[in-house]
Amino acid sequence: MPRPIPALLTAALYTAALGAALLPSAAPALSVVPIPATPPKSTATPVSPVRPANTPLPEILPTPQPSAQPSQPSSTEIQPVTPAPTPAAPPSTTAPSSATVNVPSDPLYIVQWDMQLIGMTNTWTQFPAGQVGGPVTVAVLDTGYVASPELAGRMVNGYDFVSDPRRAGDGNGRDKDASGVGEFAYHGEIIANIIGAAHDARGMAGINPRAKIVHVRVAGEDGLIDPVDLVDGLRWAAGLSVAGVPANPNPARILNLSLYADFIPLTGCDPRIQKAIDEVTAKGALVVAGSANDGKDASGYSPAGCRNVLTVTSVTQSGIRPAYANWGKSVALAAPGGEPNHGIIASSISGVGGQRSPDGTSFAAPHVSGVASLLLSVRPKLTPAQLRDLLIRTATPFPSGRCDPDPQKSCGSGTLNAAAALRAALASAVGK
Known about the structure:
By secondary structure, the protein is α/β, with parallel strands linked by helices. Helix content is about 20%, strand content about 10%. It has helices spanning about 115, 120-125, 165-170, 185-195, 225-235, 270-285, 360-380, 385-395, 420-425, and strands at about 135-140, 155-160, 210-215, 255, 285-290, 310-315, 330-335, 345, 355. The protein has a seven-stranded parallel β-sheet with strand order 2-3-1-4-5-6-7, sandwiched between helices. Strands 8-9 form a two-stranded antiparallel sheet. Keywords: Hydrolase, Protease, Serine protease, Signal. It comes from Deinococcus xinjiangensis. Belongs to the peptidase S8 family.
């Protein structure tokens, strides 16, 4: 029997899986302040990833190129941020322009095309000055905890649900240390950074800079995900009880699943996973999942093909579906996922200079999770169904009306529009 293909990999590895190309960035050369590799803050002795923090992951064969390529951004040189304190500016008698208030000064922001595509500047300026977002808890069910400086003070080393010691890579099965292990450890780190990286004049800008991230490890060192581990991880992340596991003191309102379950046929939603999704939805948590990177109908995948899931596929900078991205009726909307050689620029302690440029539906999903957390920060009583409706009905229509020339390869209602979703939420008292 052939070995299953890991479900948490990279557009390259993930032509049958869900993360995507954690390859060295092919974006323009950037000069940024390196983000130091700091050890995980854990009560247990953390297991360091196999590869050194500054060593890129091994090169993986790219997926087929999409039929249309976006124009490459011009080379942009970003000056390092000087660590010396900046003198305080004299008091201003003029109120800041609404067009500039809350715009991040993080050096990577000017090349984060994904944030521009979903309208983040016009989203952040809808908040009062200096008060972007709120401390909404988002669970990242993925490869585990990595101590990203972008999330210092706002992330939790949750729980390790990998039950098979042979695949865990940390010498045991389930335990209280969710630290990532192995060459795929940084998959979850990048996803968390897209959701909540600080606006602190270094590295990248995340969508909700006040979000709280709970890392829930469900992927083994090999990148594979056991359905039983995923079921228990889902329940625990939302604050439901799991036999033999301490209660989660930080239950999440949003669960990001940039993955799919292995060891099962890709013929529809697994009943065990569907049951867990229904339970966490009833608890009030929204499940956001990537559609997967096989270029196939997403309905056969778990959780992408399950009910009560907001399934997200990828679009490129030009708003079209890249060849790797799964599609179909189970997909609710699209978000930036990039394509080979033009991925999502993000901070990562695993990348040269503290950055990487991966592509895949793994990195589309957290854009939706991040925006959902912003909506909950202003309307905390929104239900999962109301959140889903807001995000879907405010999406930007695809160029020429669809994401792909083939009408069967649908991508939902459009591309995520953060500014429109927040504007609609603020215009209504629902969920206040």
